[in-house]
Amino acid sequence: MSVTAPLGFRAAGVPAGLKSGGARDLALVVNDGPSRAAAGVFTRNRVKAAPVLWSEQVLTGGRVKAVVLNSGGANACTGPIGFQDTHATAEKVAAVLGDSAGEVAVCSTGLIGERLPIDALLAGIDDVASQLTRDGGLAAADAIRTTDTVTKIAFRRGSGYMVGGMAKGAGMLAPAMATMLSVITTDADVSAAELDRVLRRAVSVTFDRLDTDGCMSTNDTVLLLASGAAAVSPDAAEFEKRVTEVCADLARQLLVDAEGATKAIAIEVVGAAHEDDAVTVGRAVARSSLLKCAIHGEDPNWGRVLSAVGTTDAVFEPGRVNVAINGIWVCRAGAAGDDRAKVDLRPRDVTITIDLSAGTRSATVHTTDLTADYVHENSAYST
Q: What integer pLDDT is reported at residue 178 of this predicted model?
């Protein structure tokens, strides 16, 4: 139950020879309508991959017929030829489907700085298009994996409609999403403008609150497509809730599959003067390598939390900050609180609660521990 859970969508995933070993590396998702309404959110990195630049242009029209996605190469920092390859990919999909390249979004993921084997990619499009089915969502989700150890899919049922999705990502998980690609679909009848509003709000509290390693990708893309095949105009609040739930589900799957991670850490910031302050504090704590190492070693070193909080411009008084780790208030009023030996850090899930005592706003940022396996996996990624 993935992108093809809603009516009106077909998908497929095939090996096109972009990755060694014969694994699937090319996916195609097609919206059979009757609607083609779509919205997208992309990386805020100033260095954007060619497929991001292309798809940003496509989404200005608010319509998407198909999304073609490849792993095995990011097509980022590849110069004009990289953009030409993206254009050629969209043109090939359009020719196979008998449609317009201006309504074909393109997504790529993999190593930055190397040109894709474009001949293999274009040949693979014929193959993947020939295998499009209503049952092809899982194969498509498998084809977009890079260092992911598992496929990532989710769905939710609304009142007479469905929302489904797939995602990939296991490293470079930082704000403005992650090194992630995600396609979310619905058979509800929703305008492009409403899809854009809902998607941006959903992303802001899910993918944008995921920060495992502080590294922002060049290729981040989240697309929301509506086929209208269920002929239902959904309640706006319910629809936003269902889309947000799918995004949250996928974000959680990205978190627990993060490269080398052994702990999933939720940083809850409460008592903030503003929500932005809560996010800023949560982000600073999530990026503390010292704290992430401590959590990996199951050491409840709350001083590392406070020192990270102090690097921000959030409104707070140091002498009023409280910190709990897995429910034990180890810091009260900016000083030692309950005995840190009471903290049990053996479970995979760890919750750090930071009370700024400065207001009523809150936010949660998610991160992971820092492990030797993470360093090992990223020490020779390109070689």
A: 42
| Stated pTM of the model | 0.89
- 269 and 278 Cβ atoms separated by less than 8 Å: yes
pLDDT in tens, 309-366: 999 999 999 999 999 999 999 999 999 999 999 999 999 999 999 999 999 999 999 9
Q: What is the pLDDT of residue 146?
A: 86
Position 20 scores a pLDDT of 82
Sheet with 66-70, strands from edge to edge, namely 9-14, 26-31, 66-70, 104-108
Counting every residue written for the chain, the total comes to 383
Catalytic residue among 179, 244, 353, 371: 179
Which residues belong to the annotated binding site for substrate?
A: 146, 168, 179, 259, 378, 383
Known catalytic residue at 179: yes
Question: Which residue stretches of the chain have pLDDT < 70?
Answer: 170-179, 214, 377, 380-383
Nearest CA among 265, 256, 258 for reference residue 326:
265
